[in-house]
Amino acid sequence: MHSLDSNCPLCLHAGGSLFHQDRLRVYWSCPQCHLIYVPARYHISAEAARQRYDTHRNNPDDPGHAGYRAFLNRLLDVLVPLLPLGSTGLDFGSGPEPVLSLLMAERGFQVKNYDPLYANQPSLLKRTYDFVTCAEAMEHFAQPRADWECLLGLVKHGGWLSIMTQFVTDRSRFPNWYYKQDATHVCFYSRATIQWLAQEYALSAHFHARSVVVFQR
Length: 217
Description:
By secondary structure, this protein is of the alpha/beta class. Helices cover 23% and strands 23% of the residues. It has a single domain, classed as Vaccinia Virus protein VP39 (Rossmann fold), CATH 3.40.50. Strands 5-4-6-7-10-9 form a 6-stranded mixed beta sheet, with helices on both faces. Strands 1-2-3-8 form a 4-stranded antiparallel beta sheet, with no helix packed on it. The radius of gyration is 17 Å and the shape is globular. It starts with 16 loop residues before the first strand and ends with a strand.
């Protein structure tokens, strides 16, 4: 097995071990930050990733996507009560349809959209915001340490970072876990990984039901 595979892309620890292997790729586990990750040599290209994302359009005005609105509202129902009126934010990893920002607009908040493939406006990454959302995007981070530090740097001191990602909970279930079947998913987090992030970056982390976490910077 390639020795570089043991280098964790989040905490940079070099003592990782093989966690699982299927016919398409391998998954390594870091003993320090507990991230489960797919080594970079197995990552698909940006073009292939975009083709996959394009098959998952989620138009908020389509009645057939009411479930997707409800899904995102799980995050917003936690975040919105924490925000003073007039707070402005950024949705990091907004995807092909900026549903979350539209839902926030319905609640009276202005949210900009950033996505490296669909809304690539680097100027938005040179500002700070009262809050940042990252819904179902952290699992796509090819360079999770750099991407996480970029994400955190967008949040004002005292501001909020709200994330949603599905957590690894049971190693025995991992081989058949639907979440790992997506070739664009290359990082998998557990509660222990979130706790490591909070400690490493001096954040307070608040866990909520169904894979929502809110950090205060």
